[in-house]
C-alpha cells in the first residue's frame, strides 16, 4: 500500500500537479491558437488527467488541473491560458450550473483513438492521391495522433480498434471520383484506377464498386456498434449513395466495363441511408457530380452564392438539454466562412427528418453541417473540402495552418474529434 502511494505521489510531482488550481484555455476571441488548444486538451487526456469542456463559456473553453508540464506545453505551442485558483474554478462551475444560463460543463475522460481512411500510397509506395485532407492537416497541426487505414484494414476488421473514423474526398460508388472526363489521360488517374482494381481483385471482387460497398457496410457496422464517423466532401454523399444502390449497377462502362442499369434510379432504397433521401442520381458519366444531394450549380442552376457572400450560420442549442449538438457547434464565431468541394452543401429537401442540421446557409436554403445517430453510434457530415481554401483543385498546395490558427471552419472538425471523449450525461426528460 505504501509503495502504491509513493508511486502516485511520484507521478503527481513529475506532472507538477500540486495545489495550484486549474489551467483554463479560453476559446473566445482572446485565444491566440484555437486549433492547438484542442491538441493540448487531448494531451491532458493522454496523460490520464481529467479535463472539462465548458460549453458556451467563453467560446467553449477547456480546463484541467494545473501542471507545470501542461503550462509548458501551452507556452511552447502558443496557446493562451489562464491559471485559476480552485475556488475561482468552482465559481465558474457554479455559474455554468445555473439553470437560467445556456452553458454546461462536460467531463472529458478518455482520448479517442482516431483512424483516417485515406489511400496515401499504392503497393509500390507511390503517392496516388493528388489532393490533401483537411482533417489530417488539422490533426497534424494540433498534434493529435491518428492512424491511416484503408480498404485492407477496414475489410480485415480493424475498425473496432478505434473510436473515431474520418472519411474525406472518397468515392464509395466505384466511379473514381467521376474524374474521367477531366483526368483520364493523366498518369495519377491511371495509377489511381489501377490501384483500386488491384485492391478489388485482392479481396475477391470483380468490380471496384463491389469492393467499396463492402467497405461501406463494414463502416456501417462500426457506427452501429457505437463508433463515431465524420465525413467531408464527396465521402458524405457517395457513402449514402452506395448504401441506397446496394445490388444496383450505377456505374457506366468506363468505370466498370459494362453499362449502368437503366432502371437504377427506380431501384434505389433510401431506407438504407444514414442521412439522405429521395435524391436523383446524376447519370451522365462525364459530369463531375453524383446526385442532387449536393446543392451545386450542376444540380441546382438557380444557386447563385457569390464567393464573398458565402457564409453559413451555426445553430445554437441548449447546452444542458442537447449537449451533443452543443459540443459539435462550439466556436468563437457563429458565422463561418463557406468553402467548396466536390460536395459543397446538402439540399435540405433531401435530408431525412431525423437528421439534425448544425449549420446552414439560409439564403441558399442549404445545409453545410449535419449530424445524426445510427443505432449506438454517431455520424457528422460536413460539406466542402478545405475550410481555408475556398476552391481547392487537384494538385493545389496544402493549406498552411500556421496562417490560420483561429480558423472557425477547422474548429468544427476538432469539435468532432474531442466529442467521443465526453462523459455523456443522461438526457433530461
Automatic annotation (TrEMBL):
It comes from the Bacteria. This is Asparagine synthetase B. The lineage of its organism: Bacteria, Pseudomonadati, Bacteroidota, Saprospiria, Saprospirales.
